Amino acid sequence: MNYKNNETICNYKSAQLLDLFQISSKDIELIQSAGKELSEHLDEFIADFYVWLKDTEEFSIFFSDQQLLQQVKNIQKIYWAEFLEAKIDEKYVLSRETVGLTHARIGLSLSAYFVAVDHSLFIWIKRILGSKCESDLDAVCRAFTKLVHLDTMIVVEAFSFMTNKTISKQSQALMEMSTPVTEIWEDILMLPLVGIIDSKRSQDIMNSILSKISQTQARICILDISGVAVVDTAVANHLIKISKATRLMGCECNFSGISPAIAQTIVELGIDVGSIRTNSNLKDALNHAFVSQGVRISKG
Amino acid sequence: MQNFNCYIYDDVSVSTGIIEAREWLGESVVDHHVKSLLLTVFAELAQNIIKYANRGKILLEMTKFEGEECLMICSKDHGPGIEDIEKALSENFSTSGTLGLGLPGVKRIMDEFQIDSKLGEGTTIRTFKYL
Ligand SMILES: Nc1ncnc2c1ncn2[C@@H]1O[C@H](COP(=O)(O)OP(=O)(O)OP(=O)(O)O)[C@@H](O)[C@H]1O
Ligand SMILES: [Mg+2]
Predict the structure, then answer these.
(1) pLDDT digit string, tens, across residues A228-285
(2) Which ligand has the minimum distance to the alpha carbon of residue B91?
(3) CA-CA to B102 of 20 to 30 Å: which in A36, A52, A236, A255?
(4) Are A204 and A96 within one domain?
(5) Do the domain assignments include residue A6?
(6) A268/B14 touch (CB, cutoff 8 Å), yes or no
(7) Domain ranges, residue A212
(8) Handedness of CA A108, A112, A117, A119 (dihedral sign)
(9) By the 8 A CB rule, do A129 and A137 touch?
(10) What average pLDDT does chain A have?
(11) pLDDT at residue A2 greater than cutoff 50
(12) In the prediction, which pLDDT does A4 show?
């Protein structure tokens, strides 16, 4: 799935993130100076990590391909090298976003990611405590922990960005499937409405009806609303607008499927349906359409 | 389940809220007509939260009002509050150019209707329907 380059994925700039996690320049220095020694042992870190990962369920699902595994190890090495350099700028944020987007795309769960982050942190802290580093080791551990969590937050933001994108794509797809305006007879269009009608959806409905009218020059359009989940003032307002717009194009809009419940709701809401043609069921609406278009149907 | 608490913060949350409320009512309210009216009330209150207060919540609860079994639908937000409650409850009054039938409709559908709104603090609307 693509996303536009100018779309914000993570809602925070690098400076805000440092602020949020209260990572001071002192913390950065601590990470960088410990990082000098630790970065010489990156390969060992990766090896340690994979000893652990090999026994997890995710490993067999995602890393059975040797070539892919090597690629991932290389990426991970770069990731931690960046971490130990601790140069927290927009480029740094971007590289963490990529991790989140990738995980979301391949379907690696956030839970699996959290567990892996926890284990990475465990390995690093063990190594810090065993290092010859001269700084205050508690302070180094705390600085490491903060930066690991900052990374995690960006990954989570990117992950949910991707998830939301997927959801909106899916609902868009559903929406497009659910506004099938069809010409059921010469000059007669029909559209069954089902589910929940929000303002975005009613705009889609309006668009597809109007373009179908201009394509077919239809004179009557039947909207069956028996499957609409809730009729409220907003929905009623949209339906009234749709019927006004179709009329301007020379097409009469006829609402069918007004159930007793819908009728009662409309009355209780005090909505003026004055000039709108309605029918309790589709059969009557069709009958009216045929009569007004001079269509005669006879049996046999 | 004795109550249903629904957070409203965007269009999608209104739609999913309606679906969840319908499910919740399914267990408690039998009458199909009444259920459809109650969902309309839910939708109106949720719509108003989005339009005027950005975010808020709606609570559905089986409870007693003056000793009688009823369903409460309560909406709560920390938005701008309603300037003139009497006007807001009158038909065709709207500050957003829509029909202005939501609140008066809700009042008509429900058996009891209480509104508590302070400018700059928010709005709480408590409504009850006897079952
Ligand atoms: N939660 C709220 N916070 C602040 N103001 C509100 C709130 N709910 C309603 N109002 C005010 O009360 C007025 C009337 O509300 P009502 O729901 O009756 O009509 P509407 O929302 O304008 O239009 P409609 O509901 O018919 O689409 C609104 O225009 C708005 O000014
Ligand atoms: Mg309203």
Answers:
(1) 989 999 999 999 999 999 999 999 999 999 999 999 999 999 999 887 899 999 999 9
(2) 1
(3) A255
(4) no
(5) no
(6) no
(7) 182-292
(8) negative
(9) yes
(10) 90
(11) no
(12) 47
**What separation in angstroms does the CA of A260 have from each of A145, A223, B6, B111?**
62, 17, 28, 20
The closest residue, in CA terms, to atom 29 on ligand 1 is B94
At A1 the pLDDT is 43
A199 contacts on B by Cβ (under 8 Å): 11
Q: A3 pLDDT exceeds 80?
A: no
Q: Are A111 and A239 in a shared domain?
A: no
Domain boundary among A154, A172, A190: A172
- pLDDT digits 0-9 by tens, A125-171: 999 998 887 789 999 999 999 999 999 999 999 999 988 888 888 87
Ligand 1 nearest-atom number relative to CA B122: 3
Half-sphere exposure of B106 (CA within 13 A, CB side): 27
**What integer pLDDT is reported at residue B68 of this predicted model?**
92
Mutate to test the interface with B, among A269, A272, A273, A276 (most CBs of B within 10 A): A269
Count of CB atoms within 10 A of residue A51's CB?
10
User: Tell me, what's the pLDDT at A6?
Assistant: 52
Q: Do A236 and B109 touch (CB under 8 A)?
A: no
Contact pairs from chain A to chain B, CB under 8 Å: 69
Q: For chain B, state the CA radius of gyration.
A: 14
Q: Answer yes or no: are the C-beta atoms of A39 and A84 closer than 8 Å.
A: yes
Tell me which residue in A171, A198, A233 faces B98 most closely, judged by beta carbons.
A233
Range with the poorest average pLDDT among A83-97, A117-131, B2-16: B2-16
- Which range of A55-64, A236-245, B20-29 scores highest in mean pLDDT? It is A236-245
3-state helix, strand and coil shares in percent for chain B, rounded to the nearest 5 = 40, 30, 30
Same domain as A152, residue A227? no
Measured in angstroms, the CA of A232 and the nearest CA of chain B are apart by 5
* For A265, nearest residue in chain B (alpha carbons): B37
DSSP state of A107: T
Chain A positions contacting chain B at CB under 8 Å are: 171, 196, 198-200, 229-237, 260-262, 264-265, 268-271
Residue A134 counted as domain residue: yes
Whether residues A200 and A251 fall in one domain: yes
Nearest CA in chain B to A171: B12
Residue bearing tokens 């679906």:
B19
Boundary residue ending a domain (A172, A203, A234) = A172
Protein residues whose CB sits closer than 6 Å to any atom of ligand 1: A 233-234; B 44, 48-49, 51-53, 77, 79-82, 88, 93-96, 98-104, 123
